Amino acid sequence: MDKIAVFPGSFDPITKGHESVIKRALPLFDKLYIAIGINADKKDFFPIEKRMEWINQVFKDYSTVEVIKYEGLTVDLCKKIKAKYILRGLRTSADFEFERSIGQINKKLFSDIETVFILTAPEHTSLNSSIVRDILKHGGDANQFVPEGIDLSA
Amino acid sequence: MDKIAVFPGSFDPITKGHESVIKRALPLFDKLYIAIGINADKKDFFPIEKRMEWINQVFKDYSTVEVIKYEGLTVDLCKKIKAKYILRGLRTSADFEFERSIGQINKKLFSDIETVFILTAPEHTSLNSSIVRDILKHGGDANQFVPEGIDLSA
Amino acid sequence: MDKIAVFPGSFDPITKGHESVIKRALPLFDKLYIAIGINADKKDFFPIEKRMEWINQVFKDYSTVEVIKYEGLTVDLCKKIKAKYILRGLRTSADFEFERSIGQINKKLFSDIETVFILTAPEHTSLNSSIVRDILKHGGDANQFVPEGIDLSA
Amino acid sequence: MDKIAVFPGSFDPITKGHESVIKRALPLFDKLYIAIGINADKKDFFPIEKRMEWINQVFKDYSTVEVIKYEGLTVDLCKKIKAKYILRGLRTSADFEFERSIGQINKKLFSDIETVFILTAPEHTSLNSSIVRDILKHGGDANQFVPEGIDLSA
Amino acid sequence: MDKIAVFPGSFDPITKGHESVIKRALPLFDKLYIAIGINADKKDFFPIEKRMEWINQVFKDYSTVEVIKYEGLTVDLCKKIKAKYILRGLRTSADFEFERSIGQINKKLFSDIETVFILTAPEHTSLNSSIVRDILKHGGDANQFVPEGIDLSA
Amino acid sequence: MDKIAVFPGSFDPITKGHESVIKRALPLFDKLYIAIGINADKKDFFPIEKRMEWINQVFKDYSTVEVIKYEGLTVDLCKKIKAKYILRGLRTSADFEFERSIGQINKKLFSDIETVFILTAPEHTSLNSSIVRDILKHGGDANQFVPEGIDLSA
């Protein structure tokens, strides 16, 4: 049976941390969906098309990666696309407490799902999309924090 | 002297975690007020009447429990109803850091108050009202996370 | 039915942190046993008789407190003396993670037991018996960290 | 070369915790700027002039302290005023995780900058500006949490 | 290429937590070595033969599992048996901080290795081999904490 | 008045993490003592003379650094050499909880002392002397974790 995984997130924008986690975890799975959740409550910083375009560009040479968007619960997406694994990166113990809670709730909603974690690289520990957006809001240059080839100011 | 306690919260909605903590702590007190704080800054998910009705239903056979709503500081409520104890459940170390801060500030505002904590059951560690609301917002069924007899979709 | 609690520990020696937690929690219980665990694996710093004598001195005016020593599991002691509550103080999130683990295991070994926590006072957050012993080993004066009237150098 | 430091924050309002950290760290630096960040995203509780006035009053006898306001990234301010140090207080491990992230990102944006931390006093561990504002919103008196001479209700 | 993983530990003794993590992670790998580290510094509680026998019994119906013992660094074992993955369970944030450190050091010693984490089940959060040993040392019955069919007192 | 600081530790052996923290913090102080505590309870891995020799070699071009050894409490050393600052690096939140406790106790033993923290570099987050010793005990090569020019196997 194929090992299908979902890496859910808002990727607003994708960071070097996301890129590193996904590339290192890829060999574990036959197919990995990078799934952008559409959240009516949260205001987007970058339009979803731009976010998908950037991710597609980063993984254009990786045939098992597919970028999708979805609404509703992540576990409902997993059921629909027959994914048994959710992939997440872990940076800090605050991350862990948050992810454990989500992971345990997901397991109660869909008992076949398993969340698989790998560590972010040490140099990406402090990095997340929210910090990238903050730098941009304050007029800074955040290109060093996103994958090669992405120009946030373009 | 009677041992009077307050369990403050927004209970939006009450969860199985709340129910378990309150039922296990009840024998410690002569009277326990479940006190719903009215917070003008936060938008309610369920109307306060509905929240009170659900809690009343859960504890209808427990004569020492009373559901109330209040505005203002929790310690001011405690002074008014002569409560010397605030009851809280602890799930995670993030919870603990938050609760310790509130508990120490409450002690400075009213030196006679003591916060009493008990542990949530392991199977409720990942559960809180905010997660229940998130599941509902995403079109999921969250009834397994609230006390028996409550139908969130009703 | 009487509310009987156990505060287990090694109290090697009792600190101002222990004293404060116990005095504030006392009104919750009809009887509180301060129970010194005898641990063959750990080398005592102060002899157990000295430790019991100090605790007796601190609580000599508190009629509901009794100092005892015990071997074996804390839950087995609780069953024997009909205690339904274990009392513990919480200082830090590291404490919390440790105490949660012990508390959940105790609950699996004896389902009637409930661990009740209260906060240590802010000025005692950094204090524990191990630090007191370290100060003494390095030739320092640690009397400010133990209850009034105890002279560790005597 | 002069040792110039920046203590950035919103100081909405300044607390006894801020005051204690700054006074204890002052001897380390030749000049310390208390820098109020102007954040278009966050709604102020107290007007920025009032916040600056209070800080000026607290440090009026400290010749090396200067209160300023700024927009944009903290590291850009540091470059402009030739500050090589950012000063921050640490209260809890949640604080630490947050500050480490900011500190590491600042270092990537400006490799000459070093964040210097000192501990808040134990009695200020639970205190921050957000708690002060919450007390005021709920109609309480928070003057005990701000420096002597500041009257929040004035 | 085969996906080969190592789950290193002392398994003194194996717990229900280990069993659950391994069984849920198994489908990710073509081969999983449960590898008992021989540590000259630590005194064994159960003899290594007994520990291997128990694990063999638990996984006797799982053809991709093999129990081995090893000396030296875990990454050296991985190189020798061509494993690219180390599998570990995560229970608490204290666990996470510890595992992150080991995982990052392992990556520096052998850049091809990736540590893969999955969550322990909520009911196993408080469980580890050390607690099982403590219960036994204090004369308690710990059989409920180890896999079905293992009798620790035998 | 001169700003004198102490960086206490066992440095068994010094790591790249220590080196980085000390070099970045040096400009803050007029004099920095790297002080190796002699602890009768802990067994040394490397002889104290070797440890001092390595540190001297690392800082031979830094005129404000002096390596010393001491017995007794760190605060007693500080009083003797007129140091008002203790310098420490912070890696993780577990570190922080530990250091906060030590720092607050030191302040109670000597009210003039202030502990100053700076962050370890992200790539050193997982590194400490104990891990270096573990690698050596298991027959590995740990030279990449200690300052340039130190050969642990020599």
Which blocks of ≥5 consecutive residues of chain A have pLDDT under 50? none
The CATH architecture of chain A can be named as: 3-Layer(aba) Sandwich
The residue fraction in helices of chain A comes out at 25-40%
Give the amount of beta strand of chain A, in percent: 15-25%
Oligomeric state of the chains in view: homohexamer
Provide the gyration radius of chain A in Å: 15 Å
CATH class of chain A: Alpha Beta
Shape of chain A: globular
What is the mean predicted local confidence, pLDDT of chain A?
96
Per CATH, the superfamily of chain A is HUPs
Annotated CATH topology of chain A: Rossmann fold
Largest interface: A-E, 23 and 23 residues
How many strand segments of chain A?
5
Estimated structural class of chain A: alpha/beta
Q: Strand order, biggest sheet of chain A? A: 3-2-1-4-5
Distance between the termini of chain A: 42 Å
Major sheet of chain A: 5 strands, parallel
Q: Please give the domain count of chain A.
A: 1
Task: Write up what this structure looks like.
Six copies of one chain form a homohexamer. The mean pLDDT of chain A is 96. In chain A, 47% of the residues are buried. The longest helix of chain A is centred in the middle third of the chain and has 17 residues, at 93-109. In chain A, 36% of the residues lie in helices and 20% in strands. Chain A starts with a strand and ends in a 17-residue tail after the last helix. Chain A has helices at residues 16-25, 48-58, 74-81, 93-109, 129-137; strands at residues 4-9, 31-37, 65-70, 85-90, 114-119. The radius of gyration of chain A is 15 Å and the shape is globular. With 154 residues, chain A is α/β, with parallel strands linked by helices. Chain A has one domain (4-145): 3-Layer(aba) Sandwich (Rossmann fold). Chain A contains five helices and five strands; from the N terminus they run βαβαβαβαβα. Chain A has a five-stranded parallel β-sheet, with helices on both faces. The A-E interface holds A 3, 24-25, 27-28, 84-85, 90, 93-94, 96-97, 100, 103-104, 107, 114-119, 122 and E 3, 24-25, 27-28, 84-85, 90, 93-94, 96-97, 100, 103-104, 107, 114-119, 122. Strand 5 (114-119) of chain A pairs antiparallel with strand 5 (114-119) of chain E.
